[in-house]
Amino acid sequence: MAEWLSSVYPSDRRSMAKVDRLLEQEGIRRDRNLDYTCGLFDDEGDLIATGSCFKNTIRCLAVSHERQGEGLLNRVVGHLMEVQIRRGNAHVFLCTKPQSARFFSDLGFCEIVRVDNRLVFMENRRTGFLDYCADLAKTRTDGVSAAVVMHANPFTKGHLHLVERAAAENDTVHLFVLSEEASPIPFAVRRRLVEEGVAHLPGVIVHDSGPYIISAATFPSYFLRDEEDVAQAHARLDVTVFGRIAAALHVTRRYVGEEPTSGVTACYNRVMAEELPKLGIECRVIPRLTENGRVISASTVRQAIHDGALDTVLDMLPPATASYFASPEAEGVIAAIRAENDVIHH
User: Fold this and answer.
1) From residue 308, how far is each of 252, 297, 325, 331, 339 by CA, in Å?
2) How far, CA to CA in Å, does 14 sit from each of 19, 147, 154, 155?
3) What is the C-alpha separation between 56 and 48, in angstroms, rounded?
4) How far apart are CA 312 and CA 315, in angstroms?
5) What's the confidence (pLDDT) of residue 262?
6) Which residues pair with 47 in a beta bridge?
7) Burial 277-307 (b: 16+ CB within 10 A, else e)
8) Are 15 and 39 in contact (CB under 8 A)?
9) Residues of the chain with pLDDT under 50
10) CATH superfamily ID and name for 131-339
11) CA–CA distances in Å: residue 190 to residues 150, 160, 245, 277
């Protein structure tokens, strides 16, 4: 019996319907975040295996129940790894169910963490996460250490307030800036504005988050049905990974900002408040900073930029951030924000 492997494009509705049916049969839904999908078809044109990519992750793998055990998934994964290599992605991640983890181990993937015996987070580097933690451990200090994680998109006085609070209550603050490029404001700019904004605070160490903290790699929503379940699973995976990072740095507190408007962030905070103490880490939720009667929010700043009203939110920005947006360097970023359909992240 001959099989053929082919790319499946979103415009090919017939083939995409076959992908959806196969995923459904295997208890998986198609992830909304995919940028490549392939299918393995038999000689009658029936889809017998599929897999997809998003950035440097492999997702939505499935084999027809009648054809399992024939090595079809090896072919799909091999093809997807070739796609990743052509993209320049040597470091690749996936999430899988625990019963499938050994299969991916045989293909060279190594377990990072597993969550609630539901998900296993894996990478194709034997010591990738261990090396990341070892590098972080070089910055470990004596005394009480805390952590703050932020997108800083852009860095506001609200972010600064959170870091100042942590710095006042701890000897060292490990400040992680999300390094994934997922917004018009480049990571290099976001990190620079954070570093300039906290330069007056002794004991604050700024880190890249890498691919391990709240990144595309850690969002395995295709295993889950309910949106609330998705948000909780993402949070639990992130907390489990963070627990390993905190151990490397001897971090015993994590500071988060109160979130009255974003359901996803509120869910994260709730899960962190429940799960971090189980790992010996205190979770401190800090009320949002207000200025002139308004809650300071990066989303509000982005919306103002989008609407051409940056001057109405300058009081929400530290000097370095305000100076950046007033400079010629920011013209392209401002144009990109104005071109976005939705600048509010839920």
Assistant:
1) 42, 17, 12, 12, 11
2) 9, 48, 42, 45
3) 24
4) 8
5) 61
6) 41
7) eeeebebeebeebeeeeeebbbebbbbbbbe
8) yes
9) 221-226, 346
10) HUPs (3.40.50.620)
11) 10, 13, 22, 30
In terms of C-beta density within 10 A (0-12 exposed, 13-18 middle, 19 or more buried), how is residue 308 classed? exposed
What count of other Cβ atoms lies within 10 Å of the Cβ of residue 264?
Answer: 16
Q: Is the dihedral of CA 133, 280, 216, 204 positive or negative?
A: negative
Structure tokens at 305: 């930029």
How far apart CA 317 and CA 45 sit, in angstroms, is 57
Residue pair 27/35 in contact by the 8 Å Cβ criterion: no
Residue carrying structure tokens 């007033």 = 326
Tokens at residue 216, please? Answer: 């595309």
Domain residues of the chain, as ranges? 1-89, 91-126, 131-339
Please give the CATH topology (third level) of the domain spanning 1-89. Aminopeptidase (3.40.630)
Q: Note the pLDDT of residue 28.
A: 81
